[in-house]
Amino acid sequence: MNLRKKMFLGFMAFIVAPLFVLGTITYLLSQNIIQQNYAEQSAFTLKAVGRNITYVLKEANYFSQASMQREDIQRMLGFKDGVDAVTLTEYDRLLQRTFLSYTPAYSVTLFDFERQSFSQGKIGYRQLSFAELAKLPVFGEVMALNGVPRWIGPHEFGNWTGNKPLFTMIRVINDTYTLDNRGILLQQFQFSELNRIFNYFGTSHSNDVRFMIVNQDGLIMVDNKDKLSGQALSSHIDGSIHLGREYESGRMKFDGVESIVSVHHLDLDEFGKMNWSVVSVTPWAYLSGRSIQVIQWIGAITILSLLSALLFNMLFVGHVIRFILYIVNSMKKVEIGDLGIRVEAKSKDETSALARGFNSLVERISTLLEDVKREQERKNKAELMLMQAQIKPHFLFNTLESINALAAQNEGRKVSRMVQRLGTILRVSFYHKEEIPLSMEIDHVRNYLEIQKYRFEDLFEYEIDVPPALISTPILKLTLQPLLENSIQHGFEGMESSAGDGDSDRQKGYLWITAEETEDAVVLWVQDNGAGIPDDVLLRLHGTPGSRSSGSAEAEAPLREERVGLGIPNVADRLRIHYGSRYGMMICSRPGFGTVIRCTIPKRTTG
């Protein structure tokens, strides 16, 4: 992974991610705090609403209890015979004065166990017969309570109470003194006070807050907004809530709107048999309205912080990274040999010092490489001079001895030819340039071979085949002569005596010098049919270190002992150093089957 990606990942991991996590945690904590605070506030509110509802029911229960214990009301239920019209009128007035004088009272009906009933109510009330009363599911429960009120909320028995928001109390009337059962009281109330309670607590919070009275089965009996009365609470919420607990609050959707739904169970056991709860619904948008603004400010600050961090990363960190990558790319160019590269520093900070140091280092490397190159050139020239010095002593001595012998025999023509050939060889050796045309190298080789043929009569024959198109190709002087000398001295050793005994041509040595042209190079072949090079010597020859120009006696001693000589390694090193690693020399040899040497040089022409 490159530095730019690492810095980007570091920026995301240590700056962007922490800011994002911080914003998320802040948001979740604020939502949780809001929900907890509202839950506590909602608990106080619902309990306050519950207390007010308790006061309303307590007052109604107290008024009903006091009214049915009056002696005149008790006497109404004592007749076993029918009641005349005058008495019935008086009873109606008594009911009006006693039960309906209480403002929330809507209707009242007294039943005796002789199936007589006396009923009064406000306009539009529905009178219930004893037979209908006996069919109610709660009739048996009322009788079992024996005087304890059984309350029925609005819409609990819709086919009987209708759609009006009426609270119904049913209870057995006991004799004041004997506590005997005298009849049944059914009284209905229309508590408008509940609306005032709901509106008061609702307005103090928000007009969006909804209050409901719900029975144990989840039926909404009273809704302060008059829209959901008579419906099931479960059809409006997407969660579950326990109606029997003293207080519970949860966040869920109510009619598709995210809301806080709170429930408080009313403790009304001392006022009769009922199981009701107060439920409040508050939209979450109302609760989180101000917190949303805070979250928006936090989000804006977070975004500004991210932008600032990004700007810092682009202007400062990015600048440093780009400069480092620039240095890395420049170093890669230096690695492949481009020592002319220089780093430009546009700032005056530490990067400029790094640029100057890099430029100084490259310049120093370039200078050292130039020194090494010049030193190598001097060594190459020294090697060439060494090779020239190697061929001079013994070769000149032997050649001069041969000329002296010819002179003693009065072979003036042969002496002249030998001197001419020797002069040509010396002229090439003393040539001032390191490279010469291939034609001059071939001429040098031919004269050398002719002199050696005179010295070793009938030892070898040679053949030179160089296309005319290649004679102008430049080549390092004294490239081929050391290879031929090695073949004559070491490859043909042992053939001299055999040839002198008149053996067949099979025992004579042969040398072939050929040249061919490839796409971008000239290949020179030197081949003999001599004794060949042993495998271990050939292996060491191929594995000889490239810098053979050091002249180390320890490195050359094994080769001299194996009678390979200095010529072949020196020629290989000179070709490689002068022309590069693409060019050079390759040797193939097998004992008893001769040696083949291939020299590859660039395809050029002399100017």
TrEMBL record:
Annotated InterPro entries: Bact_2-comp_sensor_kinase (IPR050640), dCache_1 (IPR033479), HAMP_dom (IPR003660), HATPase_C_sf (IPR036890), HATPase_dom (IPR003594), Sig_transdc_His_kin-like_C (IPR004358), Sig_transdc_His_kin_internal (IPR010559)
Localization per record: Cell membrane
Membrane spanning residue stretches: 7-29, 297-325
UniProt xrefs under Gene3D superfamilies: 6.10.340.10, Histidine kinase-like ATPase, C-terminal domain
Catalytic activity: ATP + protein L-histidine = ADP + protein N-phospho-L-histidine
PANTHER family named in the record: SENSOR HISTIDINE KINASE YPDA (PTHR34220:SF7)
Name the record gives this protein: histidine kinase
Organism: Paenibacillus tianmuensis
